[in-house]
């Protein structure tokens, strides 16, 4: 069953998002997102939609890889005023990547 899942996800483009509270959990802000990242990377998926840590205040997050979050992170508790803007920017970032990925898989029948 695990091998089937790996075959199903291999090469797929996947975008991740998560929630966190940077003030309350500054020592592990949005760290659970890395678990999902690791699972899909292990299946051979390509993760898109990495997100800048700029504008966030935290001490540590396991979900930061190569200086960026592995996906969009929303802190509705302390930065809810940025949520809509962050979502719109992230969607603009990932839409072309995801759209092109699925367009190339489309099958057209006459």
Report on the structure:
By secondary structure, this protein is α/β, with parallel strands linked by helices. Helix content is 39%, strand content 16%. It has helices spanning 2-9, 33-42, 76-79, 83-103; strands at 13-15, 17-19, 46-48, 51-52, 64-65, 68-69, 72-74. It has a three-stranded antiparallel β-sheet, with no helix packed on it. It starts with a helix and ends in a 7-residue tail after the last helix. Residues 106-110 have low confidence and may be disordered.
Looking at this protein, list some descriptive labels.
110 residues, alpha/beta, three-stranded antiparallel sheet, two-stranded parallel sheet
Shape: globular
Main β-sheet: number of strands, strand sense, barrel status?
3 strands, antiparallel
What is the alpha-carbon Rg in Å? Answer: 16 Å
Question: Helix fraction?
Answer: 25-40%
Number of beta strands? 7
Mean pLDDT, to the nearest integer, reads 86
Strand pairing plus helix content: what structural class? alpha/beta
**What share of the residues does DSSP label as strand, in percent?**
15-25%
| Element pattern in H and E | HEEHEEEEEHH
Distance between the termini: 35 Å
Describe the secondary-structure layout.
Blueprint: H1 2-9, E1 13-15, E2 17-19, H2 33-42, E3 46-48, E4 51-52, E5 64-65, E6 68-69, E7 72-74, H3 76-79, H4 83-103
Parallel strand pairs: 1-3, 2-7
Antiparallel strand pairs: 4-6, 5-6
């Amino acid at each position: 069953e695990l091998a089937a899942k790996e075959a199903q996800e291999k090469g797929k483009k996947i975008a991740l998002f998560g929630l966190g509270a940077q003030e309350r959990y500054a020592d592990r802000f949005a760290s659970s997102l890395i678990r999902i990242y690791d699972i899909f990377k292990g299946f051979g998926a390509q993760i898109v939609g990495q997100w800048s840590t700029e504008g966030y205040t935290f001490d540590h997050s396991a979900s930061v890889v190569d200086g960026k979050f592995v996906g969009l992170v929303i802190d509705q508790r302390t930065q809810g005023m940025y949520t809509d803007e962050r979502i719109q920017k992230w969607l603009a970032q990932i839409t072309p990547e995801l759209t092109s990925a699925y367009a190339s898989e489309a099958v057209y029948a006459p």
